Amino acid sequence: MNISFSYLHFSCCIIVLLLLSSCASKRNLVYLSDISDTADYQSKITNITEPRIQSGDLLAITVSNIDPESSNLFNKGILPVTNISALPSNMSTADPSGYLVDKAGSITFPAIGKVQLAGLTLEEGVAKIRTDLSTYAKDPIVTIKLMNFKITVIGEVSKPGVFNISNGRVNVLEALGLAGDMTIYGRREDIWIMREENGSRSITHLDLTSKNTLQSPSFYLQQNDVLYIKPDKLKERQARTNTRTLSIVVAAATIVTVIISRLF
Questions:
Q1: Where do transmembrane segments lie in this chain (predicted)?
Q2: How far apart, in Å, do the first and last CA atoms of the chain sit?
């Protein structure tokens, strides 16, 4: 009798667990799932956004022209980097230096002094410095590169972390690739991009199951963006109620077993 009761109790537990698991909603784990599996897809790229210089950016600025001596003047007196680990991994640390954009959005450049760069693209920054230098150098060639372009990926990914982007351009899918892709619990239909810009913080929602995301202004990330992958509802429920749910299942199965055993 005890053996049959135990067997019945075990069977009821299994049945209840299967019923609970069957209640879980089906999820779409495929990126851009509304693109046809058989037909090629093509669309014009119109949403590439150039990085804009922000306070806290570290800029590599070089000046050259036909007079090497005058060029050397502008390539000296730059601020040393105190945290070499913040540099991109593929950048040489033999000369770890750059111009730090201060809280007011400006840098101090040799000869011309304060230069306001915050809010400008790198190309616009080059044009501004070239114009300011025209008094001191003939036809100067100016280049600007972001030395500390980084993004952060957290949440339901295999390898969360901070990633340095050497070429200054990265989109959401590439960022997920750097983080080892989403886990099966990541909500592909609602990822967050957190951005601080012009003294304000914003959160943008993207649906990676839709091809419309490819044309979103937020598809290409900016420096210091944080990409947050939210857990799905099942993972949230598991985290909150794992122990409690198991206790309820066992109690329910026990009650069902007692009722069945008395009936039969």
A1: 245-263
A2: 12
Which contiguous run of DSSP H or E holds residue 108?
A: strand 106-109
How far apart, in whole angstroms, are the C-alpha atoms of residue 118 and residue 99?
13
pLDDT tens, position by position, 112-162: 899 999 999 999 999 999 999 888 888 889 999 999 999 999 999 999 999
Q: How many Å apart are CA 53 and CA 146, to the nearest integer? A: 8
Given 104, 130, 146, which residue is the final one in a domain? 146
Please, how many CA atoms are within 13 Å of residue 112, restricted to the half-sphere of its CB?
Answer: 17
**Model pLDDT for residues 39-50, shown as the tens digit of each residue:** 899 999 999 888
**Exposure string for 138-147, b = 16+ CB within 10 A, e = fewer:** eebebebbbb
By CB neighbour count within 10 A (0-12 exposed, 13-18 middle, 19+ buried), where does 119 fall? middle
CB atoms within 10 A of CB 36: 8
Q: CB of 158 within 8 A of CB of 230? A: no
Domain that holds residue 245: 2-26+240-263
Please report, for the domain that includes residue 189, its CATH number: 3.10.560.10
Q: How far apart are CA 54 and CA 105, in angstroms?
A: 6
Place of tokens 């959401």: 172
pTM summary value: 0.71
